């Protein structure tokens, strides 16, 4: 952000300077610095007017602040005879005391400094020496242009987006964004604010059409929320922006697909048909490695799991559960992937829960959790799916509801937000949400941590899924479960909580971004030296296992924590 020539080496800089100054420049850094200083100083000393932007503006005193590291900002404010400040109403704080928090947060988040090299403050016009020999002085002309435009007023009028004004423009959200790290500012294009927070600023201050395009780059991993110096919920606001776009300018193709998914019987019928039709692609193998024609891009760099021949809902009643004097009954919310793809994972969840004294049932009225609809801004279908599951799960009958998919669990927790408080549906949604747990969290809290296992040595590393760690705040429980399993040598991989690039439909819509993110994750897995990658998200399982399979890496297995526990304890 602050180093626009970072991608140039000293030879390229020398060529650039030679072209500009028409004087031969040697590729010697010290000489290049002198050239830059000489050319820039000449411009500053001969400029009639300097234009500055403010990091902070103090309402009580009229003081404006500019924080810089290279000193050019200070010369802009001191050398020219006219000084013009341009800043928006969002830069105002009440007092100097309030401003100090920004002085701490901005350099820390923006450039990892305790304080910037220059903090320049101006309170009105100042005197400058115009003649050194006579010490003649005159007051500079000082002006402030305060931007109070309709876009900024619209932000203030929108409760869902008002916290945009808390942004201190530190750029920390860009530093941690996996998509921005790959594509950089050039892919976002000109005349936009880049990154997550930039999407909202672009929507209100530049163009709704441009913002509608760049918001799709967001993976919804939530890392920006963790580091934001202003405490903004950036990923949540992007979701609200998607809702706004879907209502005002719906995408017909996306709407058609989401309508189909929200029709439980239709969607399940489509999956059953697909399980039969996939035979020509699977050729009896558990993975689909190649798809024809226009679908070929979907299997570039990643294989797909085959759809189960028999869905979980069709055979769940045949799973033997020998639980004497059960402590309680748990309903499993399978979600699409456990129901129609990873049915063995569902068996492991049942076996694990049985081992600590709980019987498991599967309400057959359940459907897709609604996460895809929510992620695409389709609140209409998300609410429809919430209603189906609230009625289908019958939460009042069970002690707990367990899901082996953090995205599903997070979506279940959102159900109360779809209904007005005090209504019957709100009360039922609240009960379901309160009883819904991700597998590792529930298994841990119900006493699943025991030093048992077959003792066979295995080195395991762990991948934190975005929804599990950042939305559900679960990170220690699964590690304790694995570390206390006999035979397990647990090792952390580098960047264990970095996104794997799945993001639901994201990996299909934007494979050119998803694939490099996956590549980095696979590299970290290999460097860990682990035999097994543990995780707790079926989506991440699909992404990472498919990536390893496509690369012919068969000596590293990818398993859900529930499967590892069940296997090591001899439960399946």
UniProtKB/TrEMBL annotation:
Q: Which domain of life is it from?
A: Bacteria
State the coiled-coil residue ranges: none
Query: Any stretches that span the bilayer, and where are they?
Result: none
The 4Fe-4S ferredoxin-type domain covers 157-187
Question: Which PROSITE patterns does the protein's record reference?
Answer: 4FE4S_FER_1 (PS00198), 4FE4S_FER_2 (PS51379)
Alphabetical keyword list: 4Fe-4S, Electron transport, Iron, Iron-sulfur, Metal-binding, Repeat, Transport
Q: Name one GO molecular function term.
A: 4 iron, 4 sulfur cluster binding
Q: Does the keyword 4Fe-4S apply?
A: yes
Question: Could you confirm whether the keyword Transport appears in this record?
Answer: yes
Q: What is one Pfam family matched by this protein? A: LUD_dom
InterPro entries, A to Z: 4Fe4S_Fe-S-bd, 4Fe4S_Fe_S_CS, Cys_rich_dom, FTHF_cligase-like_sf, Helical_ferredxn, LUD_dom, LutB/LldF, NagB/RpiA_transferase-like
- Protein name, as recorded: Iron-sulfur cluster-binding protein
């Amino acid at each position: 952000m602050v180093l626009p020539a970072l991608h140039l080496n000293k030879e390229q800089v020398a060529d650039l300077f030679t072209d500009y100054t028409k004087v031969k420049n040697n590729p010697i850094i010290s000489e290049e610095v002198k050239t830059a200083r000489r050319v820039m100083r000449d411009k500053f000393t001969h400029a009639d007017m300097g234009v500055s932007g403010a990091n902070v503006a103090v309402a009580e005193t009229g003081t404006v602040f500019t924080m810089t590291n290279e000193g050019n900002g200070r010369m802009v404010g001191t050398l020219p005879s006219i000084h013009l400040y341009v800043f928006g109403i969002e830069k105002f704080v009440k007092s100097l005391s309030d401003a100090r928090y920004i002085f701490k947060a901005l350099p820390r988040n923006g450039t990892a400094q305790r304080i910037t090299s220059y903090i320049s403050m101006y309170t009105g016009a100042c005197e400058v020496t115009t003649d050194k020999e006579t010490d003649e002085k005159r007051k500079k002309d000082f002006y402030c242009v305060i931007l109070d435009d309709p876009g900024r007023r619209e932000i203030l009028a929108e409760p869902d987006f008002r916290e945009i004004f808390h942004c201190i423009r530190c750029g920390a959200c860009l530093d941690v964004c996996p998509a921005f790290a790959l594509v950089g500012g050039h892919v976002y294009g000109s005349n936009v604010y880049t990154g997550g927070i930039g999407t909202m600023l672009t929507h209100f201050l530049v163009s709704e059409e441009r913002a509608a395009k760049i918001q799709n780059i967001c993976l919804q991993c939530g890392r920006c929320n963790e580091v934001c110096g202003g405490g903004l919920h950036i990923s949540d606001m992007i979701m609200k922006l998607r809702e706004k776009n879907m209502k005002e300018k719906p995408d017909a193709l996306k709407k058609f697909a989401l309508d189909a998914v929200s029709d439980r019987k239709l969607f399940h019928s489509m999956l059953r048909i697909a399980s039969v039709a996939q035979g020509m692609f699977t050729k009896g193998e558990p993975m689909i490695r190649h798809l024809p024609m226009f679908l070929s891009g979907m299997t570039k760099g990643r294989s797909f799991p085959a759809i189960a021949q028999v869905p979980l809902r069709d055979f769940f009643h045949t799973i033997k559960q020998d639980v004497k004097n059960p402590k309680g009954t748990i309903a499993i919310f399978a979600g699409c992937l456990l129901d129609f793809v990873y049915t063995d994972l569902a068996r492991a969840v049942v076996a694990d829960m049985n081992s600590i004294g709980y019987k498991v049932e599967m309400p057959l009225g359940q459907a897709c959790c609604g996460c895809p609809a929510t992620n695409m801004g389709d609140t209409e279908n998300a609410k429809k799916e919430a209603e189906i599951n609230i009625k289908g799960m019958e939460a009042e009958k069970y002690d707990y509801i367990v899901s082996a998919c953090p995205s599903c669990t997070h979506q279940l927790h959102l159900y109360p937000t779809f209904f007005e408080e005090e209504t019957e549906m709100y009360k039922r949604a609240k009960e379901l949400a309160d009883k819904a747990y991700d597998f590792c969290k529930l298994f841990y809290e119900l006493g699943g941590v025991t030093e048992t296992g077959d003792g066979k040595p295995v080195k395991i590393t762990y991948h934190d899924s975005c929804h599990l760690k950042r939305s559900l705040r679960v990170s220690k429980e699964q590690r304790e479960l694995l570390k206390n399993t006999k035979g397990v040598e647990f090792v952390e991989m580098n960047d264990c909580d970095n996104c794997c690039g799945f993001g639901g439909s994201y990996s299909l819509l934007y494979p050119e971004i998803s694939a490099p993110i996956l590549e980095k994750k696979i590299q970290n897995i290999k460097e860990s030296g682990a035999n097994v990658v543990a995780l707790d998200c079926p989506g991440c399982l699909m992404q990472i296992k498919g990536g390893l399979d496509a690369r012919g890496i068969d000596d590293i297995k990818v398993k859900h924590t529930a499967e590892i526990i069940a296997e090591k304890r001899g439960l399946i």
